[in-house]
Design a protein that fits this description.
β14 and β15 form a beta hairpin. It is elongated and about 80 Å long. It contains eight helices and 17 strands. The mean pLDDT is 89. α5 crosses α7. With 283 residues, the protein is α+β, with helices and mostly antiparallel strands.
Length: 283
């Protein structure tokens, strides 16, 4: 993506890393608000929807018959400066798996304390909380709770893989939990099971519900029984209402595709003025 853009920046003395010698280099801290002002005048720009996989230099070539003006897109659009260029659809999928590599366990909103048999709402459990360890016994897996979304009855858990056989998630003592989590064998007689909650659904984190929406786009939540211990009805929300973490990234990425671009008959005028401003002395 060759460009002459940075050649127009004023130069300053700059020292790279531990190098003792200063060198003359473009002052990249320069920021001129000329492009922000352009957004107030519709005659200078138009709306553009970035197609899937189209790069900045390709957009510049399509609109202006040169790749030299790709940088104007970033100065014209705050969200591009802050978030970067929209990803391709395949890259969004890869990004979702990187951002959300853990698992999610959806429960019925209650737990049973193994030593006493007492059944209570999840919110009062002292051990089914972030930082504590849980066991999926039938899968021979141990995980660490990262976060709890009580409104959804859902746990975010760091675990080697998704448990498929266990029907309960059970908190265990911290010492044995930490040992098992780190691959150290612990005899069954030394494992203390504390609070157990039923597993209703299980997801890879990237595919788990971020929230649920009704037909009007309003967020909705699973309902509870009115009577104690207030069992959560996960069937009161459906997969059709679910917006996963992956879907949310897709939506955010699609929104980022809408940008403002300088019109072809004004781009040279605006860029020339911008270059002149760059050459003006700074206070």
């Amino acid at each position: 993506m060759p460009t002459n853009f940075f050649q127009e920046f004023p130069k300053v003395d700059y020292k790279f890393g531990d190098n003792e010698q200063f060198v003359r280099w473009q002052d990249l801290s320069v920021y001129i608000d000329a492009f922000d002002q352009m957004q107030e005048y519709g005659a200078f720009y138009m709306d553009y929807q970035i197609p899937n996989s189209e790069r900045p230099d390709q957009v510049s070539m399509k609109l202006y018959d040169t790749t030299d003006y790709y940088w104007t897109f970033f100065l014209m659009n705050d969200h591009l400066r802050e978030q970067g260029w929209p990803l391709s659809n395949t890259m969004v999928y890869s990004q979702a798996q990187r951002y959300y590599p853990n698992i999610c366990i959806v429960t019925n909103g209650i737990f049973i304390n193994r030593p006493t048999g007492l059944v209570r709402p999840l919110g009062v459990s002292p051990t089914l909380t972030p930082g504590n360890y849980v066991r999926f016994k039938a899968d021979n897996l141990v995980g660490k709770i990262l976060r709890v979304d009580y409104d959804l009855g859902m746990y975010h858990v760091e675990c080697d893989k998704l448990p498929t056989k266990s029907n309960q998630m059970v908190s265990i003592g911290k010492d044995e939990g930490e040992a098992l989590f780190n691959g150290v064998e612990v005899e069954e007689q030394f494992i203390t099971e504390i609070d157990a909650t039923n597993i209703v659904r299980r997801y890879n984190q990237w595919d788990a519900p971020h929230h649920y929406e009704d037909a009007e786009g309003n967020w909705v939540y699973p309902t509870y029984d009115a009577d104690d211990p207030h069992v959560m009805d996960q069937n009161s929300v459906t997969t059709r209402q679910s917006v996963s973490y992956y879907q949310r990234l897709i939506e955010e990425n699609d929104i980022a595709r809408g940008i403002k671009v300088l019109k072809k008959d004004t781009v040279e005028q605006v860029v020339d003025e911008f270059k002149q401003l760059l050459k003006q002395p700074r206070n």
